[in-house]
Amino acid sequence: MTDPHLDALRQAVPGLHLKTDPADLEHYGRDWTRRWIPAPLAIALPDDVAQVQAIVRWANARGTALVPSGGRTGLSGGAVAANGELVVSLERMHRVLGFDAVDRSLTVEPGIALQAVHEAAAAHGLAYPVDFGARGSCSIGGNVSTNAGGIRVIRYGNTREWVAGLKLVTGAGDLLDLNRGLIKNSSGYDLRHLAIGAEGTLGIVVEATLKLTEPAPPAQTVLLALPSFDVLMRVFAEFRARLRLQAFEFLTERGLHHVLAHGGANPFDAVYPYYVVAEFDAADEAQQAAGLAAFEACSERGWILDGAIAQSQEQAGQLWRLREGITEAVARYRPYKNDVSVRISAMPEFLAQAQALLSEAYPQFDVVWFGHIGDGNLHINVLQPDDVADADFMAQCGRVTGLLAGLLHRHGGSISAEHGIGLVKKDHLQSTRSAEEIAAMRGIRRALDPNGVMNPGKLFD
Predict the structure, then answer these.
(1) CATH number assigned to the domain covering 96-211
(2) Which CATH code for domain 4-91?
(3) Are the beta carbons of 6 and 20 closer than 8 angstroms?
(4) Which tens digit of pLDDT belongs to each residue from 121-147?
(5) Is 82 exposed, middle or buried (0-12, 13-18, 19+ CB in 10 A)?
(6) Contacts of 425 (CB under 8 A, 6+ apart)
(7) What is the SS3 assignment for 250?
(8) Which DSSP symbol is given to 177?
(9) pTM score, two decimals?
(10) What is the pLDDT of residues 20-62, one digit of tens each?
(11) pLDDT tens, position by position, 436-458
């Protein structure tokens, strides 16, 4: 028996690829959170902008909710379809549409993987500098929709800084051409920046014009072993003062433990409480000497207990895998994830208070910390024990997240640094945004999605 909704969709969008097999519904109906049972109506895979518009107009006419879908590497439930929504996967729209050598820009479709963008930029002798561990599977549309950050924000900023223009199909089915790649454009509201980070609640990104830059200069990658949380920011301050940092990432012994158990290699003979993966410009002997001087200065103060210096690109990749491999290594535990940020100046006090809060709140749970210390972003993964029921685990984590949200509010921080709000964090949005801001956000959403078909239930109800 055919579904009348899907029959109507096929008539409204001739030639549309649809998936309805149970395995496909499960695969496309969830992201990395794994906390909700996928239950989408079907999976639509449009080939072009016209089909996306036709899908959105059909959804408005039928009152069917849509969930935009990219690589589904999100960690906040933003791409979950658990209530009969139609998933709109952009994976067939994955082309490079154009390169402009004068503007140094690359125009792409939303389904293209971040890694493919890196390769396309490199083919022209340039770089797209946004980068993170999921580069091979995440999509540019998803990156834009969550304003993704990653490991090089300290040097290059978030996705927002590298989007020169967007095309957006709104919740009403209209196609908006936002900013058109202009460097200067003081002609009213910049709707491009509303779409960036909107988690698909205002429309579907169907094209992005990305800024490119010069490739980063040769870099030195080091792994540092630290004795305590307290010295983390001291080491960062010393390295930032002496070096041109490209990245400064930290992880705990628990994070390293899980990566090693997953197949990584430990460059140290001993086990230390905290680690930093740092990368800095090392194009000449002077910059290389400055790196060694920074290491020695911190070691003399007892802030660094041991260090490993990559002697090749392969060794640098091995050191980076110790940090980037954490998410994959702990995935089997279905971790509850907190992704928070504060101003860098507030980081020392917040770190101490957050560590105390979580140590008291989770005495029996394995808590894995890592993050982008150089831009004030911490990732906190609480691993679910095998003998603790889902409901009990989620209830305790939700209660503690409320306490953490209160701490963030006191420090002027954010409950979501780079993963979005989605389903996971919407109850805590008010800790980051005022009631007036949320009311304004709701009004913007109504203006661009008057019938509420775009990713309903995400960000706020």
Answers:
(1) 3.30.465.10
(2) 3.30.43.10
(3) yes
(4) 999 999 999 998 889 999 999 999 999
(5) middle
(6) 76, 401, 415, 416
(7) strand
(8) E
(9) 0.91
(10) 999 999 999 998 887 889 999 999 999 999 999 999 999 999 9
(11) 999 999 999 999 999 999 999 99
**Token digits of residue 173:** 């089915």
- Give the pLDDT confidence score for residue 2 in this predicted structure: 67
Residue 436's identity, in one-letter code, is E
* DSSP code at position 251: E
Per the CB < 8 A criterion, the answer to whether 179 and 153 are in contact is: no
Helix, coil or strand: residue 324: helix
Which CATH architecture best describes the domain 334-444?
Answer: 2-Layer Sandwich (3.30)
For 126-256, where are the E strands, in sequence order?
163-170, 175-178, 203-211, 219-226, 245-252
**What are the CA-CA distances from residue 392 to residues 324, 335, 385, 388 (Å)?**
29, 14, 11, 7
Residue type, 77: G
Q: Compute the average pLDDT of residues 342-367.
A: 91
Cα 18 to Cα 21: distance, rounded to the nearest angstrom: 10
Q: Which residues of 212-232 are buried (b: 16+ CB within 10 A; e: fewer)?
A: beeebeebbbbbbbbeebebb
Structure tokens, 12:
């409204």
